[in-house]
Amino acid sequence: MKDIINESLSKAISYPEYRGLVSNLLLEKKSTGPNQSDDLYNYSLLNDRRMKRLDKTSKLTNATIDKVTKLSTPQTWLVLTEGWCGDAAQNLPVLHKIAEASDKIDLKLVLRDENLPLMDAFLTNGGRSIPKLVALGENKEVLFTWGPRPSTATKMIADYKEEHGKVDAHIKQELQVWYNKNKGENIQEDIVSLL
């Protein structure tokens, strides 16, 4: 496991570098990842706009600031993501703000499809769901994982899937409305509970 983590860390980029990568690919009418399609490009374009907005408007709660400023040991937050992922677009700006609030958190991002051994070590219910945060201690030990969605959103999707048998456009729309109303508070509650 340590070799897989070290390999992914060697390819990791910062949040600003990730934002630049996604934006530059969009100029070429591309998304991240090996698969390219109009749909993935359009999702990436929408997500780039979302992230720009969230970078400006996301606010940390007092509870989050209090918790992260009291961390005593360094952590590396290694996050698997892709530019076309709607959940990543909603959550990465908040994770970035949390990391920025602490001198003990180093946020690093890797692309899922370029780091499948890491992704496969941290599946969610057997799937390669992203974003996936793997928090590492000073010796690269796994402290906790989080993702791909805040706990309330995870329950929304699970309940809908149970009732309707699948995730469809309707629940995806409801999920985006929920993200907009929640303003990143649920992910902050989740992360604070894990620290």
Describe this structure in words.
With 195 residues, this protein is α+β, with helices and mostly antiparallel strands. It has a single domain (2-149), classed as Glutaredoxin (3-Layer(aba) Sandwich). It has nine helices and four strands, in the order H-H-H-H-E-H-E-H-E-E-H-H-H. It has a four-stranded mixed beta sheet, sandwiched between helices. Strand 3 and strand 4 form a beta hairpin. The radius of gyration is 16 Å and the shape is globular. The mean pLDDT is 96. Pfam families: Thioredoxin_9. This is Thioredoxin family protein. It comes from Tenacibaculum geojense.
CATH topology heading: Glutaredoxin
Strand content: 5-15%
Number of domains: 1
- The strand count comes to 4
What are the secondary-structure elements, in order, as H or E? HHHHEHEHEEHHH
Corresponding CATH architecture: 3-Layer(aba) Sandwich
Biggest β-sheet, characterized? 4 strands, mixed
Q: Return the average pLDDT rounded to an integer.
A: 96
Helix- and strand-based class? alpha+beta
Rg: 16 Å
Tell me the number of helical segments per DSSP (H or I, 4 or more residues long). Answer: 9
CATH class category label: Alpha Beta
Terminal residue distance? 22 Å
Name given to the CATH homologous superfamily: Glutaredoxin
Q: Which residues sit in consecutive blocks of at least 5 with pLDDT less than 50?
A: none
Helix content: 55-70%
Instruction: Give the overall shape, derived from the CA principal axes.
Output: globular
Organism: Tenacibaculum geojense
Protein name: Thioredoxin family protein
Pfam family, one: Thioredoxin_9
InterPro entries: Thioredoxin-like_sf (IPR036249)
